[in-house]
Amino acid sequence: MKKHNFYAGPSILPEFTENQVIKAIKDFSGTGISIMSISHRSKEFVAVMEETMFLFRELLNIPEGYHVLFLGGGASLQFAMVPMNLMNKKAAYLNTGSWAKKAMKEAKNFGEMVEVASSDDKNFAYIPKNYKIPSDADYLHITTNNTIYGTEIKEDMDVEVPLVADMSSDIFSRMVDVSKYVLIYGGAQKNLAPSGVTFVIVKEDVLGKVNRTIPTMLDYKTHIEKGSMFNTPPCIAIFAALQTLKWIKNLGGVEVMNKINREKAELLYNEIGRNKLFIPTITNEQDRSIMNVCWVMNKDFTSLEKEFLEFATERGMVGIKGHRSVGGFRASIYNALPKDSVEAIIAVMQEFENSKA
Ligand SMILES: *Cc1c(COP(=O)(O)O)cnc(C)c1O
């Protein structure tokens, strides 16, 4: 039976990416050697690194004065690297859920962490608005897509302080005005590549302003100077990211990707709204994620939750169990998830509803 992969991360990648990686594991770039076994200093791999950086910049239209880095450690290491490199005394954080909280915890190690607003009162089911940001904050940190709760900040914000964003789960899903940020980071395993590589887009002129000693490996400047080759990079994951970027470019770029994503999300939210058995967890449409769609059983049908999960699993739906802190269901409909899969889950929801009528 065909499987429809709705996992939240690691998650579905384009078939094109998978096929190119399979080929490169056998014979990378005509070298007769596997990508697993070739020197990262070989001219063939150096070319991969350069092309990945180039395409990353091209697709997001990244302006001059910014660097693109490919590092290890996941988004979770960035929770510490960001304040270590950017925070002198004070930094502001918007608390929109688990990932934001983890970033906030690390920031406290480097100075005063100010929580500007939180949606904790409603289990993070909305994006806080109209809050004050201390004007002396070194930056404001936001999480643009809250993978666990299914909320998303879908527009680039205008703020008076430098803006930093964790875009782990929505990078390349929409066009971003990079010039509004000083730093954007994320783990690649949601929309780009297998786990192992972390992307960082950083504005050169925000660096070098803190007084603390930064360990060499944790200093963005180290990786800028060495073109992300200070130490051995995660070669396969970077190669895979390049294939995904080529796939996006072939589709027509990030704007086209966004249009497809919005169509997919609308189809699924419409069905959740229409189907008597289900209700969405995010009621404010403006705050709804187009990457992670969350819903629960309607109040008269809560006893059917387990049954629906089994029903859907038997029909090839994979990874739709909601995160333990929300319950219910979550369909992650990242860039690479085909519209067919969205239609397939909708058909299953309708079949289940009809079986109960
Ligand atoms: C998955 C995720 C992370 C964690 O990424 P790691 O690479 O596992 O550290 C952080 N932030 C967001 C928004 C995520 O979706």
CATH architecture descriptor name of the largest domain: 3-Layer(aba) Sandwich
The protein's oligomeric status is single chain
* CATH C-level label of the largest domain: Alpha Beta
What portion of residues belong to β-strands? 15-25%
Spell out the helices and strands N to C. EHHEHEHEEEEEEEHHHEEHEEH
**Low-pLDDT regions:** none
Question: How many strand units?
Answer: 14
Q: What does the average pLDDT come to?
A: 98
Give the % helix.
25-40%
The count of helical stretches stands at 9
Instruction: State the fourth-level CATH superfamily of the largest domain.
Output: Type I PLP-dependent aspartate aminotransferase-like (Major domain)
| Computed structural class | alpha/beta
Textual characterization of the structure:
With 357 residues, the chain is of the alpha/beta class. The protein has two domains: 4-11 and 253-355, Aspartate Aminotransferase, domain 1 (Alpha-Beta Complex); 15-251, Type I PLP-dependent aspartate aminotransferase-like (Major domain) (Aspartate Aminotransferase, domain 2). It contains nine helices and 14 strands. The model has no long low-confidence stretch (mean pLDDT 98). Residues 9, 74-76, 99, 143, 147, 166, 168-169, 187, 190 line the site of pyridoxal-5'-phosphate.
